[in-house]
Amino acid sequence: MPLIALEDVRKRFGDNEVLKGITLRIEPGEVIALIGKSGSGKSTLLRCINGLEQLDGGAIMVADAQVADDEMRLRLLRLKVGMIFQQFNLFPHLTAGRNVMLSPTVVKGTSKADAEKLAREMLERVGLGHKFDAWPDQLSGGQQQRVAIARALAMEPIALLCDEITSALDPELVNEVLAVVRSLAAAGMTLIMVTHEMRFAREVCDRVVFMHQGLVHEIGPPEEIFANPKTPELQQFLGTTA
Ligand code: ADP
Ligand code: MG
Question: Most buried by CB count within 10 Å: which residue of 47, 72, 181, 183?
Answer without folding.
Answer: 181
